[in-house]
Amino acid sequence: MGDLAKIFKAYDVRGVVPGEFDEPIAEAVGAAFVEVTGAVSVVVAHDMRESSVPLAEAFMRGARSRGADVVFAGLGSTDLLYYASGSLGLPGVMFTASHNPAEYNGMKMCRGGAVPIGGDTGLAEIRDRAAELVGAPATPTGSLIEKDLLSGYAHHLRALVDLSSIRPLKVVVDAGNGMGGHTVPAVFEGLPLELVPLYFELDGSFPNHEANPLEPQNLVDLQRAVLDTGADLGLAFDGDADRCWVVDERGASVSPSAVTALVATRELAKDPGGTIIHNVITSLGVPEIVREHGGTPVRTRVGHSFIKAEMARTGAIFGGEHSAHYYFRDFWFADSGMLAAMHVLAALGEQDRPLSQLVAAYSRYHASGELNSAVSDQGEALSLVRAAFEGRGEVDELDGLTITGPDWWFNLRASNTEPLLRLNAEAADESKMKAIKDEVLAIVGRVSL
């Protein structure tokens, strides 16, 4: 039996199956979910992991034992679950461990309208109540209805981004044996896109590579296929297909900051003067470009719960993160990698330049990428860095330590789950960026593990 305190994270549930997360726990969480949220009906979907079906079935038994009706959507991406929650107006639960290895599974939960449930918005209460219910008998009384939502999801996305009149494009998609292999064919059907599929077979053992496009080694096959096939671009999705990474026709990565800026300009063209959310480690180019296009940039902490809360508070039309999560007001303020990918395809297909030239206008600075350092004392390391940069730039502590100079900035923040400090640095000049990065890492190294 697992330890619920260990698998309930800040935003979701995640653990090794069955050692940390098993069917009795899933059943107890189902009952607790209904009790805490007061849900009358719940929509449930799952990814392709071997453990996802039995865990989802256990959760549904628990939910139905509290009288709730269940709409079972079956296989889906996480953004399909958000579509289901938004379009049906129901609380929802997605069974997935996203990009984690095969032995993991988990749950992402939301209220009706895809409003996220996090540690301070109900997840802790669900955890505590589930701990009391583990092993208790659960007799289902609510109904169970199976509903295919894939075609509705695809139709909804195509209504938000019209690709029907773009020039023909060849696109390589690496689904990583994850849920993109299920959703991409449905969304792309009938569009002027020549699809070159990589690893579309649903396989939760991830036989080809991890379904985590943030790690460069997981992009190698996509980059090679783009070059080998002469494709216009490549797209890589993570395991639950809520994140999307873009590579250009040369096989070079397009930074999520550049994608954020590109999509922001398109959304601002539809909704002039709108608010755009970006986190503290998004490129400085994002707020610059947003202002140049008449929008209002709002900076927030890293993490989807912060982004979604700020989007709802400000009525923002779009939000982007360095981690390739992209959030849309017209998608219930939820994130959809597919929708971001469609914006990139539309922007590329509406003009004649290659993607590398198109995105050059959105890539103004040189970035280090995220660099992790294991430290013995996060607080001491942050204090040493702050002291070393005293008087050299503007300091803020919205999320970790950010110091901004005349043509550079860096952010150093602590991991919530590991003894790590995460560094992101950026400058107008590459040599300046490297100098700042090296200086910070040298200081952090004094308290390394």
Could you explain the architecture of this structure?
Residues 370-441 form the Alpha-D-phosphohexomutase C-terminal domain. Belongs to the phosphohexose mutase family. Keywords: Isomerase, Magnesium, Metal-binding, Phosphoprotein. InterPro entries: A-D-PHexomutase_a/b/a-I, A-D-PHexomutase_a/b/a-I/II/III, A-D-PHexomutase_a/b/a-II, A-D-PHexomutase_a/b/a-III, A-D-PHexomutase_C, A-D-PHexomutase_C_sf, Alpha-D-phosphohexomutase_SF. The protein has 449 residues and is of the alpha/beta class. It has 15 helices and 23 strands. The chain has 4 domains: 4-148, Alpha-D-Glucose-1,6-Bisphosphate, subunit A, domain 3 (Alpha-D-Glucose-1,6-Bisphosphate, Chain A, domain 3, 3-Layer(aba) Sandwich), CATH 3.40.120; 152-249, Alpha-D-Glucose-1,6-Bisphosphate, subunit A, domain 3 (Alpha-D-Glucose-1,6-Bisphosphate, Chain A, domain 3); 256-360, Alpha-D-Glucose-1,6-Bisphosphate, subunit A, domain 3 (Alpha-D-Glucose-1,6-Bisphosphate, Chain A, domain 3); 366-447, Alpha-D-phosphohexomutase, C-terminal domain (TATA-Binding Protein, 2-Layer Sandwich), CATH 3.30.310.50. Helices cover 37% and strands 23% of the residues. Strands 1, 2, 3, 4, 5, 6 and 7 form a 7-stranded mixed β-sheet that branches. Strands 18, 19, 20, 21, 22 and 23 form a 6-stranded antiparallel β-sheet that branches. Strands 9-8-10-11-12 form a 5-stranded mixed β-sheet, with helices on both faces. A hairpin with a 5-residue loop joins strand 11 and strand 12 (253-254). The longest helix is centred in the first third of the chain and has 15 residues, at 23-37. It starts with a helix and ends in a 5-residue tail after the last helix.
